[in-house]
Amino acid sequence: MILNASGCLDALTAPEVARELDVFVTKTVTPLPREGNPPVRIAETDVGMLNSIGLANPGIDRFLSDVLPRLLEIGPPVWVSVGGFAASEYADLCARLGETDAAALELNLSCPNVAAPEGEATAIVTAARGATDKPIFAKLAPGLPDLPAVAEAAAVAGADGLSLVNTIRGLALDPASLQPRLATESGGLSGPALRPVALAAVHAAYRATGLPIVGMGGVETGRHALELIAAGASAVALGTVLFADPGAPTRVREELEAEAARRGFDEPLAARGAAHGSVATFADAGSKRGGRVGLKL
CB 288: neighbour CB atoms within 10 A? Predict the structure, then answer.
């Protein structure tokens, strides 16, 4: 399954690209409208891209009345990324979105604006789980001091899956002035430099939880996607590559299938967990926690 990383594709301006995806993930929506950070918000680097958007979005009211209905008309199932600054805000958003045709909800616990440690992640996922029956994926940051512990906490609290990873913090300087290129000075680094970080996070979270994982971080080819699946992902999201190659979803899918076949796998997902020895399965993990095990990804 090929998705986009939240915030890396505007489906309303590029619906033809969104239709190449198996699932479209929205930009993060918050309770109130946000203008985001001042420009400059994006800067290219030798190893990827820095961004400091600041969760710019129209807020939940306009999202529900105007944005989501148009997204649902495009074709692919829609996952809504939600963000807030308290567990109650996540719960309110999930409750309102639970009445829509959104296919799943992704809790943004990973953006620098909302990054949540273990205790906060537990509170947020618990609140969200109590507010909706829709599948919930917890998106985690790679820079957490103990990512497996936070992943396990999210699983115990009721997350149906995980999204790994968001960006890591970086800084770019203007070569002439030696001043920061972003208005906020530092920002989130995505792109090729993130690949080893994403692999490590997916590998650790899969071993800790056995949950379905959407792996993302620097994916540019089918081989990159297969490596994330081998580490434990059951779906792959494309991010920075979409800015340079709008045709990446179809290309990466074809490359992934060819790479899996070349290595003797009947299908790409047959390689899931190949980088591990003995690991927990989703069913095993769910039965141990009393959680839901019927989600297919």
Answer: 12
What domains, with CATH codes, occur in the chain? 2-287 (3.20.20.70)
CA dist., res. 130 & res. 228, Å (int): 31
CA distances from residue 31 to 53, 91, 98 in whole angstroms, order as listed: 17, 11, 15
Q: How many angstroms separate the CA atoms of 279 and 213, rounded?
A: 14
Give me the helix-helix angle, 147-157 and 195-209, nearest 10°: 50
Per-residue confidence (pLDDT) for residue 144, from 0 to 100 = 86
Q: Nearest-CA neighbor of 82 among 42, 39, 131?
A: 131
3-state secondary structure of 147: helix
Tell me, rounded to whole angstroms, the distance of Cα 204 from its chain centroid.
Answer: 16
Q: Which helix (H) or strand (E) holds 108?
A: strand 104-108
Residues 6+ apart with CB under 8 A from 114: 55, 83, 84, 85, 108
Q: Closest Cα partner for 230 from 195, 197, 206, 258? A: 206
Predicted confidence at residue 143, as pLDDT, reads: 86
Token reading at 261? 């076949």
Active site residue 111: yes
Least confident of 26-30, 35-39, 142-146: 142-146
Q: Tens digit of pLDDT for each residue in 13-29? A: 999 999 999 999 999 99
Element (H or E) spanning 201, and its range? helix 195-209
CA-CA distance, 46 to 36, in Å (whole number)? 25
- Annotated catalytic residue within 8, 25, 68, 111: 111
pTM for the model: 0.92
